[in-house]
Here is the input.
Amino acid sequence: MGKLRLTIAFGLALVSLGAIVWCTVAARPVAGPATLKSTPAPNPWVAAAARADPDVGWARKATTEVLLTRADTDDLESVPEGRIDPRQRQVKVTVVHRLQMAHEDPLTEALRHGSGFPGTLQQVTDAAFGAVKVDGPGLAPTTRLAPILTSDTADTTATFTVTLLRQLPQEQLLEIDFNAPNAFPLIVTSRTIAVLPGEWTVLRQEGITPQREQEERLEFAVGAYPVSVTLAPDSQGFADVAVEEDFSWATALGVLTAVALAFFLLRSLGRGWWERLPNRELVVGLALAAPTLLIPLFAEEWSAIAYVILFVAVPALVLRHSGRVLPTSPPWNTRDLLIVTGLGVVVGLGMLSWSWLHGQLSGQALLAGGAVAALAAAGSAIAFSVDLGVRLVIVRLAVLSAEAAIGLLALALWLRALLDGVYPPDSTRLVLALGWAMIPIAAIAVATKQWSRGAVVGAVLVSLLVQGWPTEWLDAGSWSLAVPQPVPAIGSLPLDPIVRGVLGLLLLGFVMLVLRLRRLGGDLSAIGNPVAESTMIAVLMVLYITPSGSTTLADIDVPLPLLAITSIVAWATARWLLSGPRAVVDEPVTQEQHRQLIRAAIHRRLLLLAEQELYRFGRGRIGAGDLSMTDFEQQRTAVEAALRAHGRHPETAFATAAACTPWHNGVHAFTVSLLLSLPFTLVYGLPEGVDLTTFVFDGRYLITLPAFGFLFGYFYPRIRGTQPMTKALHLTAAALLTELSGYLSTLAEPDIGAMDKAQVVGIVVGQVMLVCIGLGLFWEWRIMHLADEPWARVRNLRSVRSLVAPTVALVLAVGTTAATSAAGQTVDRILKGEQVTMTFPR
Here is the structure.
């Protein structure tokens, strides 16, 4: 009986597998979408020209006039705000094409009919006159006026006007290319072109023999071949000797920042971390995998290797590492497995629906094959497990097997569509995202020392956001047919799945640093722990790194992070805050100890005030005879004895961690600093991005100052100063120096007005002062609140002296608001920065 049951079980399993194989073999390749480069319809303009008599065709005359002028306010009115850079040159290029024809020319009638206008205007002008290309980034799309027809007794003239807007650096040359007409046969045999340079001077002519050459006009005839003209600004001079800088500050700062950051990252791990063998193996594996991720930059045809490494090998490596490091196995049970496979079936049903809708497999074949595969797999599971005798287990195994069969069928059809080259566009990104999700799942498990179902769900959601926003995933065409679309980019770096995955790894690394601070910050010893200090400095340096520009690597233009000076300054100022002289602080362990220390400090303040009053009024009362020397000495001795009884440095009670852990203090300081920074989103704007990593990167300005606040709370006893407000003033100096360092090169720019520079400095200073002084006041209140003492005992709201700091912060905040409301376009561009240009399809 046992052999018969096994035979039935294996037989049903083979039937299920056979149904899946049959569906895969029977699947037909899906017809792809119409290519974007399909053969255009016959040009009626060219067809009309071909019908003309040869003598009529030879009688046509074509002229092109190119006028260069400075773009004025009316010209730039349609340009999106923020795209115009006042430090660059805005140029308007007006191209006027004129075609003179005989009345009986068929082209005249074709123009009057206007077939396809205005959509075919570019097709008409390129066919007759050739395309005119102007170098430089465009401020706005090329515009074309409606053609103007003028007739007299002799002939008819058609005038086409084309306007181009360009933005160039002040010293850049301007190149105009006149391409050959693309009509065959030619509509005109020769063309006459005139260039009116205006504020420009013709520097180079290629393929041109001028008929008229003057300062204000260059005129030449050209046939069916391309020519080009290069112009230089009238105000641009050329040095006899080009001075090459042997030393680059950007490169030097980049190398210094990279070395410092690498040092702090290695130090943040600690010696104990490096002593464990699995950790060293992980580092070696990641070091071997990292160079392979550069393959798409050098050999695009070998990009598949990089995809396999990032989305298969690296997840397998980190899962293996977590399995060796964690003391327990994952607590997954049969219910978890059923949920996961159920979600897989939901995704699989989407693939099966795609196969049916696009004719990969007929509906009857899909239903029959899916039903046979699922039922046979369930029957096989029942036959294998019937001897267990537990009905619930048998049912679960049957359901699990059926779900696995449906998922395997969907996977097989997806692979078949992938091999045929036509597949759901976002299906590959989904598979890659699920593979990449294994990395954060394992990383969070290692960081928290446990496996968590919530972490698994969060990691999957994050991995999906790394590969695109929900609007991108749910786009109407995302699950239809692969239609070629422009790829989003950061600068010149295309955001394909592998780039997004690498950026996601960098974001994950930053999150791991923060989780390490959380783990270390659970104990008061972290305040003086060099590992925690190195981790905090590494976090600050990462937040202040600013990618900018590109470099050439093996003749390929590769965007690389030219690390900003702000990262170096953040390192220096953080070290300055934490390495200053400080008094010996007896850290309270409990809230009761903190309360006693604060009360003793308040009592000592009272005694100091009493001693001051005794000396201030004692002289007058002694001189008037109201107080004898004996009574004065008795009172002075009593006050001094009371002061000695409270210790020499009781004021250090306001420089302790208040019996709270560093992480707890850091989170409170970060939250308050973030709330104080939020109003300045009116200045910098809300973050933007095409996925999670680009969004987080664009929103770094929201957490840079709060990160300094986190440093303030985490290492509060080590911050320079003995009181919350003195510590806050030191924090203000460090944060202000770091924030302003990012604008040094811009503030030194001579083309920016002094008022704009003053507004920028006012906004930055106001923000830093408001955040830091506000944090100091909050910390003073918090220390008193934790000691169950009223805040008024240390800051008397009726005293002018006690209100100096908050008044200064309020005045600066109001001034900042006024500067913000008056900030012009230049200030807006300076504050938002121009280091990274993000482009993506609308």
Summary: The first strand starts at residue 61 and ends at 70. The first helix runs from residue 2 to 26. The chain is about 55% helix and 10% strand. The two ends are 67 Å apart (CA to CA).
